[in-house]
Amino acid sequence: MQNNNTKRIPIIAGNWKMNIFPEDATTLSTGIIHDTQQLEVIVLPPYVYLHQVHNLLKNKSVKLGAQNVSMYSSGSYTGEISAPMLKSVNCSHAIIGHSERRQLFHEQDDAIAKEFTALVKEGIVPIVCIGETQQQRKSGNAKSIIKQQLDQILEITSSAEQLIDFIIAYEPVWAIGTGESASSELAQEMHEYIRSLCSKVSSDLADQTRIIYGGSINPENAHDLLSQQDIDGGLLGKASVSLDKFNSIIKVANTIWRQ
Ligand code: PEP
After folding, report:
1. Integer angstrom CA distances of residue 161 from 106, 151, 164
2. How far apart are CA 211 and CA 166, in angstroms?
3. Structure confidence by residue, pLDDT tens digits, 6-37
4. Which atom of ligand 1 has the smallest separation from the CA of 98?
5. What is the position in ligand 1's atom list of the atom closest to the CA of 240?
6. What b/e string do you get for 96-118 counting C-beta neighbours within 10 Å, with b at 16 or more?
7. Shortest-distance atom of ligand 1 to CA 176
8. Any atom of ligand 1 within 6 Å of the Cβ of 176
């Protein structure tokens, strides 16, 4: 499907996970080199550093996101962080359904759909992570798993009055943190499939929804992956907590999308 970059602004997002301390947050936030509106750069620190990172990013066009959100907006939910709270600390984005949340904390599609609704209500852009395990791929179920993970989200978008701005991150579980990314051909095939699912809701949704790839992106494989037609950017884990690597990948992205 044609990647019309005049419509879809590409994204480089860094998920810092639970891998940093305040001094790292400072080094990363102050060192990111990003100077164009043609690319959206987003960092996703741990909750406790959101305020600090927001203050450090004030003079940059780097956006701020959270790594998760509660499905509830307020109340007696010890340990949870709500979408209105994320808004109060200037988050414009939040990841939901990361495979680590799905696998280690047993988050299910219906809970993720509620988190999606909670974010949209606050005007925060959800980054919905989907992806199959190695076993699901081996048994030929990769596409049906992706469809199942997206079904409730697409249902919400199809009944919304206006087009919902959200981002889909295709992250094959077997590629996350393993150093073994998907090949660019496989990633493109899956992204094209995901876009075809969006097109069943509407052609506008398919045209405008950014579908980004995640799973062992590094400065060496970034060009190959990010230059695929249906890949609108990358979600980075490991490479996002190395300033050199993160800046190199932003540079690669700029060489692709600045043309
Ligand atoms: C991730 O966890 O979202 C991710 C893409 O990690 P990594 O880049 O380390 O594979």
Report:
1. 31, 18, 9
2. 9
3. 479 999 999 999 999 999 999 999 999 998 88
4. 3
5. 8
6. bbbbbbbeeeebeeebbbbbbbb
7. 10
8. yes
Catalytic residue among 40, 115, 132, 171: 171
Check pocket membership of 101 for ligand 1, CB cut-off 6 A.
Answer: no
Q: Please, is 92 exposed, middle or buried when counting C-beta atoms within 10 Å of its C-beta (0-12, 13-18, 19+)?
A: middle
* Residue with CA nearest ligand 1 atom 3: 237
Tokens 């992706």 -> residue: 146
Distance set, CA 163 to CA 122, 154, 158, 166 (Å): 15, 11, 8, 9
155-211 confidence digits (pLDDT tens):
999 999 999 999 999 999 999 999 999 999 999 999 999 999 999 999 999 999 999
> Does residue 1 lie in a domain region?
no
Residue 73's domain is classified under what CATH number?
Answer: 3.20.20.70
Ligand 1 pocket residue status of 240, Cβ below 6 Å: no
- Ligand 1, atom 2, lies closest to the CA of 237
For the chain, how many residues are written?
A: 259
Ligand 1 within 6 A of CB of 235: yes
pTM exceeding 0.70: yes
Could you tell me if residue 152 is inside a domain? yes
Q: Which atom of ligand 1 is nearest to the CA of 169?
A: 3
189 alpha carbon – ligand 1 mean position (Å) = 20
Residue 5 in domain: no
In a domain, 248, yes or no: yes
Average pLDDT, the chain: 96
- Segments forming the whole domain that contains residue 206: 11-257
Amino acid residing at 172 = P
Work out how many domains the chain is built from and give that number.
1
**CB of residue 215 inside a 6 A radius of ligand 1:** yes
